[in-house]
Amino acid sequence: MLDFPRWKTTGISIILLFGILFAIPSFLPDKAFESLPSFAQTKVNLGLDLAGGSHLLLEADLADLRKTQLSNMEKTVRTAMRGERGAGDDIAIGELRNANGQISFLVRDQTQLDEARERLFRETQGAGLTGQRDWNIEVVDTTRIVLTPTQVGLDQAVDRAMDTARDIIDRRVNSLGTREPTIIRQGDDRIVVQVPGLDDPQQLKDLIGKTAKLEFRMVDANADPNEAAQGRAPVGSEIVPYAPGEGSGAAFEVLSRQVMISGEQLIDAQQSFDPQTSLPVVSIRFDSGGSSTFARVTSQNVGKRFAMVLDGQVLSAPSINEPILGGSAQISGNFTVASANALAISLRSGALPVKMAVVEERTVTPELGADSIRKGAIAGIVATVAVLVFMIVVYGRFGIYANAALAFNIALIVAIMGMFNATLTLPGIAGFVLTIGAAVDANVLINERIREELKSGRRVFQAVEIGYKEASRAIFDANITNVIAAALMFWFGSGPIKGFAVVLTIGIVTSVFTAVTVTRLFAARWLHAKRPTALNI
């Protein structure tokens, strides 16, 4: 137990040196930190409760999600009946309706009814592994097929939409340049967003609240303006309002329901400036499929108007003066540089599959965070000093070894958290302070066991060796149970609870290493060098 080969001593020394070097960046001011080489820029981030920032609770509009689900199924029906997937000849349908939470249509040729149902069955294979279909398919009045979403299908759609929304919100928030946001689902239809250090919470709300569903649709030139003014649109078209501040006096446009190209086919969106007016705009580029579609549609409709629709509102409706062949376009409107950049971020990250509303908002000021840091630091300093004094008074030389191991332990915790860019929260500071006390607990067990061995008449070398050997078993057993508890907190907890669990777990691992291995190395070196015949402990 007290034999340390050169390779083991070297390995322990390298680990301790690593802890010191990689802990230093977390305590440097920002300017000094940024001057470090990239491999050394490891730093512990401060959480919302320490750095200040914004907390938002978002709730999904499930009614809007169901409406989108019906709209998507309407498109699926049209595609499936056209036979574009190798299912055979086209099936003539009519009276396609989307109403009362159902999709229904008429199969004109009754002999094709079974084929139509078979194509729809392939499109509604079921919700997950439940064996249940996500749509019920019924035939009424001999030739009319009615599709109704099942509860299992609705639940699965909500789950998919919320997972997608969480990922998209994460991409949008990280595009703001913030560090370590917390974005997690809460319940079935809510998402919690916590962004430390964000100076403009309104910018965050505007960015997250924008669905960013972009569509290019043709303006219905045959619509009667008088009928449209009374809220009546021709079959196959709908009335879409202009976004506030847009339209040059017009309140709405009558647009074809058919989307000629959508934001899903975008590959890039950037804020730029119109070369003619120098006003902020958003420049977009389509993928290969979107580029060819855009070129074909604009070539076939020269002289006609098309509308750019964002989140159900018309931004602009320009005329097609010539075919647009480059696969890129420009979105103009009443933009500022900030709003154009926010829209570009939203379009790049993708459209939210469901509208999200802010139902709870909290803002933590940096002053409150600074107060938390100050009080946490005071608690940590008081606890550390008390422990250091206690160990020296009670255990003398071996107390000094324990204190040195404690200092290395703190450095290792900070270094490891910095390497993983972990976030330190107020509960994390509590975990830190708790770790300080737990770290010396192992040395208390070791030192007391050495005392017992000395009292039983064993020689110094033998007493120290047996003391470390026997106490280590209890130390490992106790800390394994602590790690299990921390793992459960991390798995089932969220936010600050996870932060506490992370700090506690790292602290347990490093404290066992420093308290057992490092102090044993110190003791072994001293014993081999001095060969004492008596030991004061």
Characterize the structure shown.
The chain is α+β, with helices and mostly antiparallel strands. Helices cover 51% and strands 19% of the residues. It is built from 15 helices and 19 strands. A 4-stranded antiparallel beta sheet has the order 7-8-2-18. A 4-stranded antiparallel beta sheet has the order 3-4-6-5. A 4-stranded antiparallel beta sheet has the order 12-9-15-16. Helix 1 (6-23) crosses helix 12 (397-419) and helix 13 (426-455) packs antiparallel against helix 14. The protein starts with 5 loop residues before the first helix and ends in a 7-residue tail after the last helix. 35% of the residues are buried.
- What global shape is seen? elongated
* Tally of separate helices: 15
User: What is the topology, as strand order, of the major beta sheet?
Assistant: 7-8-2-18
Distance between the termini: 19 Å
Low-confidence stretches: none
Nearest-integer average pLDDT: 83
Quaternary state of the chains: single chain
Output the radius of gyration.
Answer: 33 Å
Q: How large is the share of residues in beta strands?
A: 15-25%
The largest β sheet comes out as: 4 strands, antiparallel
Structural class determined from secondary elements? alpha+beta
